[in-house]
Write a structure and sequence with these properties.
heterodimer; A: 754 residues; Aldehyde Oxidoreductase, domain 4; seven-stranded mixed beta sheet; five-stranded mixed beta sheet; 28% helix; B: 170 residues; alpha+beta; Ubiquitin-like (UB roll); 5 helices
């Protein structure tokens, strides 16, 4: 076996064992052997039964092969995932993975996404985990199912398994005899646990994995097909709209129910404590009734919000949990120069283009909920608690919605739909939030502040690094009914479970807070605030956007202080060869270092390995600055990405391109407006985001494929590096270090003029 | 009764004349392409063509349409026989969640109906009212350019987003 083969073999073993679901700490520290393993991710902790921790991805939590793949005697193959399509294209990519190892054309497979009545429970679709968790599970489950069916066919045919040829659910012997998957499955029980090893194909022979198979959902979305939960029409369906409190903890004093009941089409008003909703036969009738009900309801003043000008200082007081996440000490050369800096991020919102929506129907004591939630099982459990119903009487079926980018109103509107449907048995109830509700009742991504100090030795090597961050929760997922906003409004309100910090290595606010760079002395402190002045939860990349922004900005400052090229400076501090590869590739494609250019243009570079576990992303950007207004535009970017084994190259490019544009919008333009009484960003004019005039001329994504190595999460991986590269390009263009997001606009103009 | 001509078919609808066109399309005519995004004319998810203009159907009451014809994305083609823009969007995989996409296509169609070969600046200015949160803009522009016969990427290096970049196997 030569070195390359050996690498490949190691890679394939890693693939089979691939972590994906990261087993990160044991329940009882110090008594590891006795404890079940616990998987840390967003949402509730997940327990893995003993002996299953060696299985790939989500097979750890759903070990039965027939939870993933069912084959009927007539040969119909159905593949299940517990993950959902959020607009990232994973439905297509997961089907590719299953089709590859089943040796079938994807079009021959029926593919089912998360549905509590059908699919395995894979918790949330979040954290760029889908290919790692579900893809690894499907890859291995499909290979094992194929292996079992081939062995059964070999037995039936009286030949050696290795002599059989498998294609499109037909197993063919050298003499031409055929046993179909449907025939073979009759002598195989697929209701069995997966095994730690699988008869995986040689990645060099892949025909479906690694190809840019067009997404399954796009043609329907382009031709007016009913693609979203918003598009559902059920017989006898009614439309509901809700009236939400004008501020947190406001109490409903009075409402003009009698008056609104007389409006055309109105069939019911649901009022329970501070929960208020109106149901009408027509959707426009429901909207008009909601407006009237909203105008005619009186509320007590709610609780005060913090002053946006002092919220970051208050956060330092509220952050009462101090979690040391890195403390490494080693001898190093004497420091000759020490730098320090403070970075600020303000509250941002998800900003889904379509307000959250759900359809629910309550019939014969059973509730069905169609939802674009990221986690149908956690939602079902929360609804069961809220409604005091047995879990088995509630079915949550994922149906696509507008892109959510994290924990938006999806679960909350599903709770609204459920509560209203239970009040109207026999009728399907469709609820959609209005634009101001999606904006003001979002689970915002928290404000953050970070402080960093580091020293250089005479050779320009970093000898020490100290970093601290302050943040409230990035993870208010549905772990109890109290996490569903409508449940907190009821006359007998549910109380949200306490906020808990997420743990390393994935982290929450502290995601990517530990630099990947090789540093002799590192100290990193995560200061967690268990209380939240504003409702917050997960937005794509959680704290990584801010931490990578800070780390990569500061690396640029250090490189400048060391009189070194920032790309060279990064390479000098990195040992991971895959990190070096993406940095070199992005720099080469960009033509770094860029020769002199026009005034008010700048170039910047940044890198991160998402969560220090997932995809590697390096990018170089060019920006332009309008000095008179502070307007910043990302002009172009060259990006290099290593996501391990590539399943769908175009899908990865689409996610990286989208991530760069979205992160540019967050980093340059966005800021939640609020005052001490109310959230004031209630529409797109009070919360502007990137529009076509600011879209870059080109974003070119260069992929490094690593056949046979684990799938690495991609969809969130470009958010942090984009922020860092933009900040560094702004320094290049203006000579100013911008350390408070949003970087563009009036604050930039003031700094330029200062 | 409200008389509407939608995608070449005349319909008489017994609905409140104040009903915005969007609700009539989605609920009374079962045309799902146009989406509710804001109800304020700020995002363009509801864009359809009325007469020869791209309009926000969430704001336009059915009573204000008069004799003008209404065209929605369903009129451009089907999955089996997509229209030129639909085909280009599919080729460029110019969607992520896709919620904004029908509005994007109809706004672009209104431009190309009037001006089959717009400049890059005209194209961007025309698309400015429509929001995409997934960041699919580069592909959306590339797909429209393909139909408009525009060179990719305007004045800078040629790159079409969907086709851009290289692959390296290591």
């Amino acid at each position: 076996m030569n070195a390359k083969d050996d690498d490949l073999a190691k890679g394939r073993r890693r693939f089979m064992m691939s972590g994906a679901l990261v087993v990160s700490f044991s329940l009882l520290p110090g008594v590891k052997t006795l404890a079940q393993e616990v998987i840390a991710d967003e949402g509730a902790a997940v327990h893995v039964a003993k002996g299953l921790d060696a299985l790939a991805g989500s097979l750890k939590t759903n070990p039965f092969l027939d939870a993933w793949i069912k084959i009927t005697p007539s040969g119909q193959v159905t593949v299940f995932t517990g993950k959902v399509e959020l607009g990232t294209g994973v439905r297509t990519a997961l089907l590719q993975v299953a089709a590859e190892e089943l040796n079938m054309a994807p079009s021959l497979i029926t593919f089912i996404t998360a549905d509590t009545g059908l699919s395995p429970d894979e918790g949330l679709t979040a954290g760029s985990h889908t290919l790692a968790d579900s893809g690894s599970a499907l890859l291995n489950a499909a290979a094992q199912v194929r292996g079992l069916l081939v062995d059964a066919a070999a037995k039936r045919l009286g030949v050696d398994s290795a002599s059989l040829h498998v294609k499109d659910a037909k197993i063919t012997a050298p003499d031409g005899r055929v046993v179909t998957y449907g025939d073979a499955v009759q002598s195989v029980d697929l209701h069995r646990n997966a095994t730690p090893t699988s008869p995986l194909k040689d990645p060099q022979t892949f025909q479906v994995i690694g190809t840019s198979m067009p997404r399954l959902d796009i043609p329907g979305k382009l031709t007016g097909g009913a693609s979203y939960v918003q598009d559902m029409h059920l017989p006898n369906m009614v439309h509901a709209r809700v009236v939400l409190p004008p501020s947190y903890d406001a109490t409903l004093l009075d409402a003009n129910e009698a008056e609104v009941m007389k409006m055309p089409g109105v069939v019911k008003i649901v009022r329970d404590g501070n929960l208020l909703a109106v149901v009408a036969t027509g959707e426009w009738q429901a909207v008009l009734a909601q407006r009237a009900l909203s105008a005619g309801s009186r509320w007590s003043p709610g609780r005060a919000l913090p002053d946006p000008n002092t919220v970051h200082q208050e956060l330092k007081v509220l952050a009462t949990q101090h979690i040391e996440i890195a403390n490494k000490q080693a001898p190093a050369a004497p420091a000759v120069k020490t730098l320090s800096a403070t970075y600020i991020k303000r509250y941002l919102m998800h900003g889904s283009i379509g307000p959250s929506c759900s359809v629910a129907q309550f019939d014969n004591d059973a509730l069905t909920v169609w939802t674009h939630s990221q986690g149908v099982y956690p939602l079902r459990d929360g609804l069961a608690e809220m409604l005091s119903m047995p879990k088995e009487k509630i079915r949550c079926i994922h149906t696509e919605g507008s892109g959510c980018y994290g924990h938006n109103g999806a679960d909350d509107v599903a709770a609204h739909a459920a509560l209203i449907a239970v009040a109207l048995p026999g009728r399907a109830v469709r609820v959609q939030w209005m634009r101001d509700q999606e904006h003001t009742w979002d689970h915002f991504t928290p404000a953050m502040i970070t402080e960093v100090a580091a020293s250089l030795d005479e050779q320009g090597q970093i000898v020490d690094w100290k970093y601290a961050l302050w943040s409230s929760s990035h993870n208010e997922r549905i772990v109890n009914a109290g996490r569903l906003m409508p449940a907190t409004l009821l006359a007998k309100p549910f109380i949200s479970a306490p906020s808990e910090p997420m743990v390393q290595p994935e982290g929450g606010g502290d995601r990517n807070a530990i630099p990947l760079y090789s540093l002799p002395n590192v100290y990193v402190m995560n200061n967690f605030s268990p209380t939240m002045p504003l409702h917050t939860s997960a937005l794509r990349s959680l704290g990584a956007h801010t931490n990578v922004f800070a780390i990569e900005s500061f690396m640029d400052e250090l490189a400048f202080a060391a009189h070194m090229d920032p790309v060279e400076f990064r390479l000098k501090h990195l040992q991971d060869p895959r990190a070096q590869d993406v940095i070199r590739l992005a720099a080469k494609q960009f033509g770094w270092p860029r020769p002199p250019r026009r005034p008010d243009r700048g170039v910047g570079f940044a890198f991160a390995k998402y969560k220090n576990l997932m995809a590697y992303v390096a990018l170089a950007v060019e920006i332009s600055v309008e000095r008179e207004t502070g307007r910043v535009r990302l002009e172009s970017a060259e990006v290099a990405v290593d996501t391990g084994q590539i399943v769908n190259p175009d899908g990865i490019r689409n996610q990286i391109e989208g991530g760069i544009l979205q992160s540019s919008s967050w980093t340059l333009y966005e800021e939640l407006k609020y005052d001490t009484t109310q959230i004031r960003s209630f529409d797109w004019s009070s919360y502007p985001i990137l529009r076509f005039s600011a879209v870059p001329t080109s974003v070119r994504v260069h992929l490094i494929d690593r056949p046979g190595t684990p799938f690495l999460g991609t969809a969130e991986a470009s958010m942090g590096p984009t922020a860092g590269a933009l900040a560094n390009a702004l320094f290049d263009a203006t000579g100013k270090r911008l350390r408070q997001m949003p970087l563009g606009g009036d604050s930039l103009r003031q700094q330029i003029e200062a | 009764m409200i008389q509407l001509t939608v995608n070449g078919v005349q319909d008489a609808l017994d609905i409140d004349p104040s009903t915005p066109l969007l609700y009539a399309l989605r609920n009374d005519l079962q045309l799902h392409g146009a989406k509710f995004g804001c109800g304020l004319g700020q995002c363009g998810a509801c864009t359809v063509i009325v007469g020869d203009r791209a309009v926000f159907s969430c704001l336009l009451p059915v009573s204000a349409i008069g004799n003008r014809t209404v065209r929605t994305i369903e009129s451009l083609g089907t999955i089996e026989h997509p229209g030129a823009l639909q085909k280009a969007f599919i080729e460029h995989q110019a969607a992520q969640c896709g919620y904004c996409i029908a509005g994007m296509v109809m706004r672009a169609q209104a431009l190309l109906d009037r001006n089959a070969h717009p400049t890059e600046a005209q194209l961007r200015e025309h698309m400015e009212p429509n929001l995409c949160r997934c960041g699919t803009h580069i592909r959306i522009l590339a797909a429209i350019r393909q139909v408009a016969g525009l060179v990719d990427g305007g004045t800078d290096t040629a790159a079409s987003g969907a086709r851009s970049g290289t692959g390296v196997s290591q």
